[in-house]
Amino acid sequence: MLTKENIADRLMQLQQSICVALEQEDGKGKFIEEKWEREGGGGGRSRVLQHGNVIEKGGVNFSAVHGELPANIQQALKITESKFFATGVSIVIHPSSPLMPIIHMNVRYFELANGEYWFGGGIDLTPHYVNVDDAKWFHTQLKNTCDAFDGSYYPKFKEWADDYFFIPHRNETRGIGGIFFDRLKADVESKTSEGKQGLFDFLIAVGETFAPIYLHFMKLKRSLDYSEEEKKWQMLRRGRYVEFNLIYDKGTRFGLDTNGRTESILMSLPENAGWFYNYNPTAGSQEAQTLELLKKGIDWA
Amino acid sequence: MLTKENIADRLMQLQQSICVALEQEDGKGKFIEEKWEREGGGGGRSRVLQHGNVIEKGGVNFSAVHGELPANIQQALKITESKFFATGVSIVIHPSSPLMPIIHMNVRYFELANGEYWFGGGIDLTPHYVNVDDAKWFHTQLKNTCDAFDGSYYPKFKEWADDYFFIPHRNETRGIGGIFFDRLKADVESKTSEGKQGLFDFLIAVGETFAPIYLHFMKLKRSLDYSEEEKKWQMLRRGRYVEFNLIYDKGTRFGLDTNGRTESILMSLPENAGWFYNYNPTAGSQEAQTLELLKKGIDWA
Question: Which has more pLDDT, B258 or B50?
């Protein structure tokens, strides 16, 4: 029987193994850990690395919280039960180099006192400059992970990521997407511990896909030189990232609305970001090409 | 009879006179103007100044829009009428120097097709470092403007600003507040054009208070030297400004939800901002003293 404690323990291990892998490849940065408790119940283990060789600011957070859901969250989730348990690992890495992508991963488990539960999560990539080969490679890794479990997962979760990581007021996607899923649960008929175990195995497989993917990009891009102009564009792209996270991201809102630890929730924000009024890249530039590729529905894999 | 066209015209004049005053005192920066049209009806005249001597990024926007309100905005406003007209001037100035305050002003008029109308607006100040004398001076100016119309305005609108410009997840105010008011309309009994005219005169008086206030700070602070450490703190305070505007500010949300011009709405964001994980100023430092003063309910005037 897979208990919420089993799930939380396994996710803590995942946090640990990812931190080790990132530190090793970075070669300089070390994660600083803060353990925190939530007033309403539970707590977490936040780990943030700043000013590494490759990673400028990266957070790999674990939390396991429980208590009462505020009414507005119950409404948003369309549930009437208020006693909840939630555990997950959340990652955002902002690299120093504008030629390296920002990455985000989240795997989470949610359970209500009435026995209802679901899994959610995903991985998505936000290159400051979209490179078509990198995008294909990235989506192929995600597709491979998904296909090992269910052939319907990748197309479905890829489309979901396109829709979720979208900035309406800019009419652009946050990055090149990836996979996103929520409310994943075993069918009612087959609601056995095996069905739940299978979904959890998938969740962990997604989590285990993160480190090899990002280490690939770290190795590939860490020695590339970049210009002041590229750094400025990175600031602008980081500004868009901030806009998405503060205005639209449901995880951020959930965290702030349930009185989570603000510094842990907002570790997703970059060390700096910029807003340049009415900035329009020159036609044909790398920047303009990137904008062309920040669209929904591109079949990368 | 005071028509919506009269009001919009007068607000455009206000935009113009403020831009002239700011350019003159800055001595280098020039406002760049964009006229834009809104698909649903109306448009605006955006003016942004970047990289002046004193002002790093400042926007002074006029708009007059009309059309159909989206259902979520009708709900938020608790109205059933959907045809609206809205006009206003919005200002945010981010100075280069961390020793100079960020300032925000907004004056607006809102009218529904059923004849209902109201005025709203305010001025608030966000010093990167709170200086007690400056704060007293600032609030006294606002009190003087209010008292010339109604002795109840300043205490009421000052408290409203404290409540509105508050960042719950940081448990701090955005700055030292100022005045904020909304849904200001003539009493139903005295709903004559004179009552409306009186309120409009107050609105314009608030608008006319802006330039003398900010010019005072420009003159006072423009020649002061500052350190790298102070510049870093400015980045952090700007980060908080971004958090407030993107998460909580109703004007920003109204603009984005009604498909306003994104670059005009988000001109309120600074050229750059920073997020430093778990940054805690040293006890007794200028930064720590500022945090002590970012609280509701301080009687400055």
Answer: B50
Is the Cβ–Cβ distance between B158 and B144 less than 8 Å? Answer: no
Q: Which residue has the tokens 């639209």?
A: A248
Chain A positions in Cβ-Cβ contact with residue B242 (cut-off 8 Å): 242, 246, 273
Domain A4-293 has CATH 3.90.1150.10: no
Dihedral class, residue B146 (left if φ above 0, else alpha if ψ from -120 to 50, else beta): alpha
* Residue among A48, A57, A272 minimizing CB distance to B235: A272
Residue A297, classified by CB atoms within 10 Å of its CB into exposed (0-12), middle (13-18) or buried (19+), is exposed
Interface test with A, best of B170, B252, B259, B275 (most A CBs within 10 A): B275
Determine what percent of chain B is predicted with pLDDT higher than 70: 97
Which of B102, B238, B278, B279 to probe by mutation at the A interface, max A CB count within 10 Å? B278
d(CA A56, CA A39) in angstroms, rounded, equals 31
Nearest to A92 by CA among A170, A191, A174: A174
Give B105-125 pLDDT, tens digit per residue: 999 999 999 999 999 999 999
Average predicted confidence (pLDDT) for chain A:
95
Interface contact flag, A271 B276, Cβ < 8 Å = yes
CB pairs under 8 A between A and B: 77
Q: Identify the band that residue A76 occupies on the pLDDT scale cut at 50, 70 and 90.
A: confident
Residue A35's H or E segment, with its range, is strand A31-37
Query: A239-261: string of b/e by CB count within 10 Å (b at 16+)?
Result: bbbbbbbbbbbebbbbbbebebb
Task: Give the pLDDT confidence score for residue A254 in this predicted structure.
Answer: 85
Inter-chain CB proximity A256 and B235 less than 8 Å: no
What's the one-letter identity of residue B192?
T
Mean pLDDT of A70-99: 94
Considering only CB atoms, A273 lies closest to which of B50, B256, B273, namely: B273
Output the six-digit token pair for B233: 């703190």
pLDDT of residue B290: 98
Alpha-carbon distance of A104 to A180, in angstroms, equals 11
Chain B interface includes A81 (CB < 8 A): no
The token pair that represents A18 in the structure block = 């990812």
Task: Select from A47, A61, A53 the least CA-distant residue to A29.
Answer: A53
Whether the pLDDT of residue B272 is over 90: the answer is yes
Please tell me which residue of chain B has the smallest CA distance to A268. B275
CB B25 within 8 A of CB B218: yes
| Lowest-confidence pick of A2-16, A96-110, A190-204 | A190-204
What b-and-e string marks burial along B64-86, b requiring 16 or more CB atoms within 10 Å of the CB?
Answer: bbbbebeeebbeebeeeeeebbb
How far apart are the C-alpha atoms of B146 and B125, rounded to whole Å?
16
CA A249-B263-A161 angle, to 5 degrees, is: 30
Number of Cβ within a 10 Å radius of residue B269: 26
- Residue for token pair 């045809």: B83
pTM: 0.95
Angle, alpha carbons A176-A182-A187 (nearest 5°) = 135
Instruction: Say if A235 is an interface residue toward chain B (CB within 8 Å).
Output: yes
Pairwise CB contact (< 8 Å): A273 & B276: no
Task: Provide the pLDDT confidence category of residue A187 given band limits of 50, 70 and 90.
Answer: low
